[in-house]
Design a protein that fits this description.
By secondary structure, the protein is an alpha/beta fold. Helices cover 45% and strands 21% of the residues.
């Protein structure tokens, strides 16, 4: 029962967080749960020192606040400290965005800072 309650609380926090365009930290269990449910997911592989990542953040936050994209759960992977996840996702550079829909990867981009490009990618998650 505790496990079920804990999972429900985590999902509630993630949904609320993505609606506010806050980034939930990536954990494999949360990602797997979202995939099993077929939820749209954006995984952003970033680094705090990366100027491209810093340029992506305001655009991503702005777009994820729009009604159209509020159903997307946004998870952030730290390029430097979560190397196992970076490798599992086959990411070679920070500033990589990967979207999933129905349990499958539907698109990715690396280094794109344009609003149009990022929005086009997000649409692939819907």
């Amino acid at each position: 029962m505790k496990s079920l309650l804990k999972s429900a609380l985590i999902m509630l926090l993630l949904v609320a967080g993505s609606a506010m365009a806050d980034w939930a930290p990536y954990t494999q269990s949360v990602f797997d749960s979202l995939q099993q449910q077929g939820k749209p997911v954006l995984v952003w592989v970033h680094a705090v020192w990366c100027p491209t990542c810093k340029a992506q953040e305001p655009t991503l936050s702005s777009l994820l606040k729009q009604k159209e994209y509020q159903g997307i759960t946004a998870l952030r992977v730290d390029f430097d400290s979560q190397k196992d996840i970076v490798l599992a996702l086959h990411v070679v550079k920070q500033s990589t965005l990967v979207v999933f829909k129905g349990g499958k990867e539907t698109g990715r981009s690396t280094g794109d800072t344009s609003r149009e490009g990022i929005e086009h990618l997000l649409q692939k998650a819907l």
